């Protein structure tokens, strides 16, 4: 479970997030939709305990930040803009390293499973620096899922992936959500939201501007609803 | 598809101290593996150290007695300058692809990252010493294979790495970190360098332990207090 109450973040004089209240239940796949610069990455970094909020409270997987952040991190899988991989190491070496950080049981079997799933096994011994952007992204997704986290925080996970990898990732995320993993996925892409979300939270100008359930996303009016929510947020409106 | 079992975190499976040490060990192994594959850090430190030794050798044109007196100073000047190269590169590797975020997500107290990096850095310094001491010994005609000198080397290198790793983490985000690190580091390092030069010189001259103790004491104090500072402040330094 993810809960943020009155969350705010200020960088110098700039307020990047303002009083964000968000709850994602276990087994729920929520898409955080918003334009560039809306504060999506900042919110995800706070929820992953990589950044401290200026105000407000965070609770992830039953642990409050910052007091129980180390315990929470064991339950969090985070994928950011950058792959967080060591480019001189091979794909397998990177995953072995992260498996040892998280104390993954039977790491070899788990690593093989993920490398096969993301079609990286044939190149497992090659340095990551020789991988294409899409392959690095696939490996980064595997890294985020390596320790079987209860909470997944994914920032634009589809970026750089080809159609086949997108299909695998979508299937995997739906499957994980069905089995109880809490997923918060940030994107600016309306199609990703329509394809995957059980619920969409629109983040604009650092505020949650709208919240829609799955049935509302199927409507053809969804893009215009989204545009209106963004305009309202830019004018300083509150949650719809 | 992958089963989302509960996260098998270190915190859940092992006592906290073992989890902490496992992360420290994983980081040291990872840094050594990266270096084994890239050979960037050690190569630059080693070439730099050998150049400094050669330049001193040809620039000073000293007689045998003066050479022997200057040995300790030249050695530590060499290690100090080569060490800053290593510290900069060691933290830069974590900045690439935001690999540091991957470390910060580990489910343990973040001081484990500090100790892992500091131990890796001291290993690199000692490896450089291992290669440069024989060269120095031949060029300067000084017998450097002295148990006391080796003890000073280990204590001095650990004090150096302990404070250097902390400051390198501070300088990491700065655009001019190659300049910033030595500017921050050398004023704080002066007591270690003076004590190390004095203790090394006394050991090479074969003086009684009573003369050497004050310098050794200072090295021991640094070797204990600097890691303590790292333990207390590393989390604040790397936090966003």
Kindly report the average pLDDT value of chain A. 90
Number of helices of chain B: 9
Instruction: Tell me the major beta sheet of chain A.
Output: 6 strands, mixed
Q: What is the 3D form of chain A? A: globular
Number of helices of chain A: 9
Considering residues with a beta carbon less than 8 A from a beta carbon on another chain, report the largest interface and each chain's count. A-B, 50 and 41 residues
For the biggest sheet of chain B, the summary is: none
Calculate the terminal CA-CA distance of chain B, rounded to whole Å: 36 Å
Write down the secondary-structure element order of chain A. Answer: EEEHEEHEHHHEHEHEEHH
User: Average pLDDT value of chain B?
Assistant: 86
Beta strand count of chain A: 10
Report strand order across the widest sheet of chain A. 6-7-8-3-9-10
Using only C-alpha atoms, the radius of gyration of chain A works out to: 18 Å
Estimated radius of gyration of chain B: 20 Å
Question: In one word, what is the shape of chain B?
Answer: globular
Name the quaternary structure: heterodimer
- β-strand amount of chain B: under 5%
How far is the N terminus from the C terminus of chain A? 23 Å
């Amino acid at each position: 479970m993810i809960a943020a109450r009155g969350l705010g973040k200020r960088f110098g004089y700039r307020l990047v997030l303002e009083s964000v209240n968000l709850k994602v239940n276990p087994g729920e796949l929520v898409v955080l939709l918003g334009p560039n610069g809306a504060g999506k990455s900042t919110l995800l970094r706070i929820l992953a305990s990589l950044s401290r909020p200026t105000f407000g409270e965070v609770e992830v997987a039953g642990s409050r930040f910052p007091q129980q952040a180390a315990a929470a991190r064991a339950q969090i899988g985070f994928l950011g803009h950058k792959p967080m991989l060591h480019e001189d190491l091979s794909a397998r070496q990177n995953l072995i390293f992260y498996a040892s950080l998280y104390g993954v049981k039977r790491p070899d079997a788990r690593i093989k499973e993920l490398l096969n799933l993301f079609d990286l096994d044939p190149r497992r011994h090659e340095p990551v620096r020789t991988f294409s952007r899409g392959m690095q992204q696939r490996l980064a997704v595997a890294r985020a899922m390596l320790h079987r986290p209860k909470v997944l925080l994914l920032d634009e996970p589809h970026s750089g992936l080809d159609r086949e990898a997108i299909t695998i990732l979508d299937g995997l995320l739906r499957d994980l959500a069905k089995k109880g993993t809490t997923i918060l996925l940030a994107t600016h892409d309306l199609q990703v939201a329509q394809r995957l979300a059980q619920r969409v939270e629109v983040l604009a100008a650092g505020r949650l501007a709208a919240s829609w359930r799955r049935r509302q996303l199927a409507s053809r009016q969804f893009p215009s609803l989204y545009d209106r929510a963004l305009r309202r947020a830019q004018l300083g409106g509150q949650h719809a | 598809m992958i089963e989302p079992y509960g996260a098998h975190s270190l915190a859940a499976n092992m006592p906290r101290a073992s989890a902490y040490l496992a992360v420290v060990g994983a980081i040291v192994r990872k840094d050594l593996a990266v270096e084994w594959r890239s050979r960037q850090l050690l190569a630059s430190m080693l070439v730099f150290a050998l150049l400094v030794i050669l330049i001193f050798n040809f620039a000073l044109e000293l007689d045998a007695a003066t050479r022997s007196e200057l040995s300790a100073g030249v050695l530590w000047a060499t290690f100090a300058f080569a060490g800053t190269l290593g510290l900069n590169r060691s933290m830069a590797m974590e900045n690439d692809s935001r690999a540091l975020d991957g470390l910060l997500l580990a489910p343990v107290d973040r001081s484990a990252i500090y100790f892992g990096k500091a131990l890796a850095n001291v290993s690199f310094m000692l490896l450089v010493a291992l290669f440069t001491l024989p060269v120095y010994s031949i060029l300067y005609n000084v017998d450097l294979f002295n148990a006391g000198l080796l003890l000073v080397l280990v204590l001095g290198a650990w004090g150096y790495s302990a404070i250097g790793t902390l400051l390198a983490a501070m300088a990491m985000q700065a655009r001019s970190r190659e300049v910033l690190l030595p500017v921050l580091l050398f004023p704080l390092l002066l007591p270690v360098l003076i004590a190390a030069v004095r203790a090394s010189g006394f050991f090479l001259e074969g003086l009684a332990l009573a003369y050497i103790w004050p310098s050794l004491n200072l090295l021991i104090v640094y070797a204990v207090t600097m890691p303590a500072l790292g333990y207390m402040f590393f989390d604040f330094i790397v936090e966003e």
